[in-house]
Amino acid sequence: MQMPGGRQARGSAPDVYTALMFVGIVSMIAAVAMLWVAGSRVSPSGNPLELQAKDGAIKLPN
User: Fold this and answer.
1) Is 8:20 a contact under the CB 8 Å cutoff?
2) Per-residue pLDDT for the chain (62 aa), expressed as one digit of tens each?
3) What is the DSSP string of 15-44?
4) Which of 15, 31, 40, 45 is deepest in the core (most CB within 10 A)?
C-alpha cells in the first residue's frame, strides 16, 4: 500500500552479491586463461589439450 506523499518506488539495483559474483567470474576467466597459456608451454605440440605419452617419459618442447 502506497502512502500519500511518499517517495516513488525505484527499480531494483545491483547489490553487493552481484558485484561479488562478477568479481568471481572475472577471476575464474583469468585463472583459466593462465592455465591455458601454461598448458600450451609444456605440451609436446603446443596444444594444451594434448596428453603426454603413457610410457612415463615426459617430453617438453624445445
Assistant:
1) no
2) 566 766 666 778 888 999 999 999 999 999 999 999 998 888 878 888 887 777 777 777 66
3) -HHHHHHHHHHHHHHHHHHHHHHHHHHHSS
4) 40
Which residues touch 41 (CB under 8 Å, ≥6 apart)? 61
Question: What pTM was estimated for this model as a whole?
Answer: 0.65
Q: How far apart are CA 34 and CA 13, in angstroms?
A: 33
Q: Which three cell numbers stand for residue 58?
A: 615426459
C-alpha span between 26 and 8 (Å, rounded): 35
